[in-house]
């Protein structure tokens, strides 16, 4: 046993020096089912919002969290149902018309109906960055708490800190109890009930895992070229997975340089950090400029992404079937939520603060899904 | 003085009783550029070798300025004013440009400085931008070509024969070469050139002669030809549609991911290159020369090594691999068909059967380390038949074959290893149109059989005709991927240069 540990330690050290094994700085390419297209750029613009964050549907109604406001989306119009004193960070529709709402990541409230004046249950203890909610078949709420150290808006700081404080929680609206299913996750962001277990996106590890209620995990979708986020059910079986930003070699490199990161975070304004963003191209001070991004004033779609739009269609096993992209030269970046309703895929592009809609049937035909 | 400087009348050359050229009449006008085109094995090289004194005619006559000649050696021909620039350049790589120019003309005592001064003034008179003190081995292909041409002109050649002069040149170098040929023409030099690039023949030549199966089919003004007419004359049938004309309307669906390359580095050519290759598909890799395509796949095939530190990953069927020699890659099911067949592809003085057998040896069949001579010959005959290699027999030496058939031998040598991933690097470079069709059919067949096929090519029509997906490489990495259905030449080229 001792010898094995020694060999493992030597191997790890050698890998660090040689840049191999776990220390390899590699970003998978967008190919196969993830082959880039401009489908998100072709999507219909439903609505422009102030601060869209999450979508939820009960099959009949579509709810939108826009900053502190809760809206109901009908066709291309939105009706405000109510407003809170804090921004909404996650939404989930529960059985019987109930609605679960996370506020600023620090509090989860369950309302019997969206306009109910008082919550049926409230969870406020020990929450830090609840960014996604899902409902289990037994009525429990699955919540992903991205980081115990940072708030929901500080995800980029958590990435640069290499945060490993994400949690998956089971909230019981009936008893008010909270159970930690798993902790120490590299930014849990996105949950969905799957049979008796759940699917969880672990953003900073670029993967989706199937998690049992005892916390044991099986990797369903590893080694993504983007940072995965929320999940939702597809009507034809399988799932929709959003990825809010894409990985780039530069960021991967910076993540392996702690001293550089510390100094960058201390001395440079956050909007100019070398870190993925939900939108980009707004200032010449942004990292990655020049011929890497533009040639003769034209943005190259294949340039290294600072911001990116991506939605992935997964089958029941979690294998990607096809994907929808907004590339570097596009605008519909930072897709954080996608839900299916009446044959349409409704998405939030948080970068440009847009609600988008795409017909699903033509996509299925085009990609042969 | 007649306008005809060089003429051949009923020229015939037999090899082992088989005619390489058969009763060919050919005439070269003073100061003209005359293109010789034809499939591999059509007799172009033999005809020019006769002119350059490399081989002698079996029957027929040759006249220079109306006087009968029969040069016995290239030196004889050179003394008569006929110079030949061979496809494989004949320069000594370790010597300087000046030394190469004056090679064979050394007097008892040579003052090196004098040679350099003479070479400098001579190269300047030709407007060639080559330093006489540069070592030839350090020159690029175009500059070597310049030195070859300069050498021919230095020997006061009035007729210069070029055998595939542009095969190894980049597009920029080609343009430079065309300017050179134009200058030579202005000086009154008559030029014969062999080319498989029909567009070059149409653009550059005053007249074109088409040969087929050792016989002259037609000689006419270049202006009276178009691509389709040349191809039809070359192969005796219309291939224009089956070659590059048809655009793909369907693509094969990707099978399992066979190869994943992630952030592969080999400074300075390969920089963070990432790509995947799928089974049952042809993955075309396009890029300009220097885009790192060949190097990337040579690393995959164990021919080159990636950077020792932070060199990236090669994952073959979900398993990280690092091949240090090609043999281990071959055993893992990877075959790399080289772009430089003459140097890396075969042993030219060995027989076809021997070459194919050597390909198999790299893999070692299960439980066997050697095959008997009879088994090796059977293997050779089998592959000669399967790939339709046109040769006198399986014991024919590879050097005796035409370019297209040599390429088929190289392909056989790789396919005999039973690979799952086959990388074709410029599979039809220096290959005639008839063989191109056959090689393309073979590549398509391999993909249909479920093999993962990679085709690296600098020729866009070839990429467009073959590929199910097109990867565009630029500055050492793949920058863009297109499905064959969405790819256009403009899109691909834009990605390749921006």
Task: Walk me through what this model shows.
The complex is a heterodimer of chains A (369) and B (498). Chain A has a single domain (27-367), classed as TolB, C-terminal domain (Neuraminidase), CATH 2.120.10. Chain A contains six helices and 26 strands. Chain A has helices spanning 2-18, 39-42, 155-160, 249-254, 258-267, 360-367, and strands spanning 44-48, 52-57, 62-66, 69-74, 77-83, 88-93, 99-103, 107-111, 121-123, 130-135, 141-145, 166-171, 178-185, 188-194, 197-202, 207-211, 217-221, 226-233, 239-246, 294-295, 298-299, 309-314, 320-326, 335-341, 344-349, 354-359. In chain A, strand 14 and strand 15 (197-202) form a beta hairpin. Chain A is globular. With 498 residues, chain B is α/β, with parallel strands linked by helices. Helix content of chain B is 35%, strand content 25%. Chain B has helices at residues 44-51, 74-80, 97-101, 112-125, 141-154, 171-186, 198-204, 227-235, 240-245, 293-300, 326-331, 341-345, 352-361, 373-386, 403-415, 433-448, 460-466, 489-497; strands spanning 4-15, 18-29, 33-38, 59-64, 67-69, 82-85, 159-163, 190-194, 207-212, 215-221, 257-266, 270-278, 282-287, 313-316, 319-321, 334-337, 421-425, 452-457, 469-474, 477-483. A six-stranded mixed sheet of chain B has the order 6-7-8-3-9-10, sandwiched between helices. In chain B, helix 5 (141-154) runs parallel beside helix 6 and helix 13 (352-361) packs parallel to helix 15 (403-415). The N and C termini of chain B lie far apart (54 Å). The interface between A and B is medium-sized, with 22 and 25 residues.
């Amino acid at each position: 046993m001792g010898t094995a540990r020694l060999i493992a330690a030597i191997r790890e050290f050698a890998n660090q020096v040689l840049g191999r094994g776990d220390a390899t700085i590699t970003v998978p390419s967008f190919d196969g089912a993830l082959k880039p297209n401009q489908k998100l750029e072709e999507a219909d613009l439903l609505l422009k919002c102030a601060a869209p964050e999450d979508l939820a549907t009960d099959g009949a109604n579509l709810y939108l969290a826009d900053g502190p406001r809760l809206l109901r989306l009908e066709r291309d119009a939105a009706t405000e149902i109510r407003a809170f004193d804090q921004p909404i960070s996650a939404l989930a529709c529960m059985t019987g018309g109930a609605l679960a709402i996370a506020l600023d990541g620090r509090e989860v409230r369950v309302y019997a109906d969206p306009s109910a004046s008082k919550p049926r249950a409230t969870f406020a203890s020990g929450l830090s960055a609840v960014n996604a909610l899902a409902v289990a078949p037994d009525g429990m709420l699955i919540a992903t708490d991205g980081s115990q150290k940072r708030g929901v808006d500080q995800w980029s700081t958590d990435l640069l800190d290499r945060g490993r404080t994400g949690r998956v929680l089971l909230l019981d609206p009936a008893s008010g109890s909270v159970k930690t299913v798993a902790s120490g996750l590299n930014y849990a962001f996105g949950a969905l009930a799957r049979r008796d277990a759940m699917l969880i996106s672990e953003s900073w590890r670029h993967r989706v895992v199937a998690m049992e209620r005892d916390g044991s995990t099986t990797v369903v979708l590893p080694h993504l070229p983007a940072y995965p986020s929320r999940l939702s059910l597809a009507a034809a079986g399988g799932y929709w997975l959003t990825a809010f930003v894409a990985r780039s070699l530069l960021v991967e490199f910076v993540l392996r340089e702690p001293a550089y990161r510390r100094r960058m975070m201390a001395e440079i304004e956050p909007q100019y950090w070398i870190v993925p963003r939900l939108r980009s191209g707004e200032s010449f001070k942004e990292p990655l400029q020049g011929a890497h991004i533009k040639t003769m004033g034209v943005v190259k779609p294949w340039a290294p992404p600072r911001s990116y739009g991506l939605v992935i269609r997964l089958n029941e096993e979690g294998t990607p079937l096809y994907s929808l992209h907004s590339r570097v030269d596009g605008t519909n970046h930072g897709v954080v939520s996608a839900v299916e309703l009446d044959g349409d895929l409704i998405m939030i592009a948080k970068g440009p603060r847009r609600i988008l809609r795409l017909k699903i049937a033509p996509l299925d035909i085009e990609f042969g899904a | 003085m007649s306008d005809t400087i060089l003429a051949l009348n009923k020229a015939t050359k037999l090899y082992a009783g088989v005619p390489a050229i058969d009763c060919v009449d050919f005439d070269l006008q003073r100061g003209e550029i005359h293109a010789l085109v034809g499939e591999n094995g059509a007799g172009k090289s033999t005809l020019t070798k006769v002119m350059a004194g490399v081989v002698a005619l079996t029957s027929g006559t040759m006249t220079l300025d109306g006087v009968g000649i029969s040069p016995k050696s290239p030196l004889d021909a050179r003394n008569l004013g006929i110079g030949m620039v061979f496809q494989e350049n004949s320069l000594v790589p370790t010597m300087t440009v000046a030394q190469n120019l004056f090679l064979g003309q050394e007097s008892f005592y040579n003052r090196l400085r004098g040679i350099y001064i003479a070479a400098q003034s001579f190269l300047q008179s030709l407007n060639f931008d080559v330093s006489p003190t540069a070592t030839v081995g350090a020159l690029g292909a175009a500059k070597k070509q310049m030195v070859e041409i300069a050498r021919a002109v230095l020997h006061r050649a009035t007729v210069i024969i070029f055998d595939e002069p542009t095969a190894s040149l980049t597009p920029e170098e080609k343009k430079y070469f065309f300017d050179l040929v134009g200058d030579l023409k202005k000086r009154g030099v008559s030029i014969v050139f062999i080319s498989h690039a029909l567009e070059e023949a149409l653009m550059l030549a005053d007249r074109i002669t088409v040969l087929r199966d050792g016989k002259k089919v037609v000689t006419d003004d270049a202006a009276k030809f178009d691509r389709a007419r040349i191809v039809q004359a070359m192969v005796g049938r219309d291939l224009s549609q089956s070659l590059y004309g048809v655009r793909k309307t369907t693509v094969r669906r990707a099978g399992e991911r066979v190869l994943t390359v992630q952030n592969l580095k080999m400074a300075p050519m390969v920089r963070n290159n990432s790509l995947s290759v799928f089974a049952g598909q042809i993955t075309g890799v396009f890029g300009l020369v220097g885009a790192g395509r060949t190097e990337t796949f040579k690393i995959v095939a164990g021919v080159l090594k990636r950077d020792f530190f932070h060199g990236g990953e090669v994952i073959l069927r979900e398993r990280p691999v690092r091949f240090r020699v090609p043999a281990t890659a071959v055993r893992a099911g990877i075959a790399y068909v080289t772009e430089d067949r003459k140097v890396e592809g075969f042993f030219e003085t060995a027989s076809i059967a021997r070459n194919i057998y050597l390909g198999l040896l790299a893999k070692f069949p299960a439980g066997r380390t050697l095959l008997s001579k009879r088994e090796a010959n059977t293997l050779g005959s089998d592959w000669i038949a399967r790939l339709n290699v046109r040769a006198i027999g399986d014991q024919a030496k590879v050097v005796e074959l035409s370019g297209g058939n040599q390429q088929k031998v190289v392909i056989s040598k790789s396919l005999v290893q039973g690979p799952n991933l086959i990388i074709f690097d410029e599979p039809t470079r220096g290959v005639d149109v008839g063989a191109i069709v056959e090689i393309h059919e073979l590549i398509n067949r391999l993909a249909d059989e479920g093999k993962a096929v990679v085709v690296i090519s600098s020729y866009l029509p070839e990429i467009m005709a073959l590929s199910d997906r097109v990867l565009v490489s630029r500055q050492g990495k793949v920058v863009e991927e297109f499905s064959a259905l969405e790819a256009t030449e403009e899109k691909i080229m834009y990605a390749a240069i921006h």
